[in-house]
Fold:
Amino acid sequence: MSDAQSISKVTEIINDSKIGMLTTINEEGALVSRPLAVQEVKDDGDMWFFTGLGTSQVAHVRVDPRVNVAFGKNTEWVSVAGTAAVVTDRAKIRELWNQAVEAWFPNGPDTPEVCLLRIDSDSAEYWTSPGGTAATVLQWVKSKVTNSRMSVGESSTVEL
Structure:
């Protein structure tokens, strides 16, 4: 698969999944993950999330901007490594604003607490298992019967 096709696959998995597990590094150096809904994914894998200025993810990113975001749906997964930035630009917040975000911030996009996390993606690794769950189970059974390594699809790492 070409780099362009791999990048397209990464953005497709992210868009299909919608919710990513954002992992940051806390003050003690431990990894901390939490689910966030992706708002926009660029063709180069960069992505945007809404959050609040008082959240742990914002505090962590301000100290150490290295992050990972993992997405998965059915038999496709992607893990994206990158650098996060806290964005308080009201024009960008209004541009990405939607009714789902309003459930978290009922006072609208001008709520002082509202901010965005922009993830500048550096690399991604993805896995797909064509044929769905049934094909994966059959491959597992085959590997057990033949005492061989399981093969369930494709995996690739791509620089973004």
About this structure: The first strand starts at residue 19 and ends at 25.
